[in-house]
Amino acid sequence: MPDMTQTTISIRTAQDADAPAVIALWQAAGLTRPWNDPATDYALALAHPMARVLIADDRGRDGHSPVGTIMAGYDGHRGWFYYLGVAPTAQRQGIGRMLVRAAEAWLTSVGCPKAMLMVRSDNAAVTAFYTALGYEAQAVTTLGRRLDGR
Ligand SMILES: CC(C)(COP(=O)(O)OP(=O)(O)OC[C@H]1O[C@@H](n2cnc3c(N)ncnc32)[C@H](O)[C@@H]1OP(=O)(O)O)[C@@H](O)C(=O)NCCC(=O)NCCS
Questions:
Q1: Residue limits of the N-acetyltransferase domain (predicted)?
Q2: Backbone angles phi, psi at 57, to 5 degrees
């Protein structure tokens, strides 16, 4: 697989104007779910001082189109990743790795000691991806409860 990460990919912090392109990318990468409105998720993250959405731009594509994203947030104890996705036509070229490393660097810069993420236990591909980057499965059950009445 050609490695284009050294030449045409750059990572930057997402801005409000990136919303349509980022949401389209989330949809193309299969990251959206019926119970989460992606526009609301995007706006909440951009408005929060301890969250970032990072974008991988491909300068080799028309209009520097985004080819990948990751959302990271620091809760004061751990850092969490969400919405990691690379455009289907740009996968397995090192872009996902670049995004995770950039998100780790941001978490480190704000004093966060550990990065965490949730992946469905039957998602072998994403588990293999994070394992390749040094992440280890943890014996926990994730519980959740909506606080917004939805
Ligand atoms: C997961 C994802 C972001 C990985 O991005 P990517 O740019 O393709 O990954 P990289 O090229 O940086 O891969 C780095 C390493 O991870 C491992 N890896 C990546 N994808 C893999 C796969 N499908 N199966 C097994 N290992 C994989 C490999 O070791 C790879 O190195 P190699 O290509 O030299 O063998 C991408 O597949 C994606 O967008 N998937 C759909 C969205 C998704 O499921 N996101 C996660 C939600 S929890």
A1: 9-150
A2: -95, 145
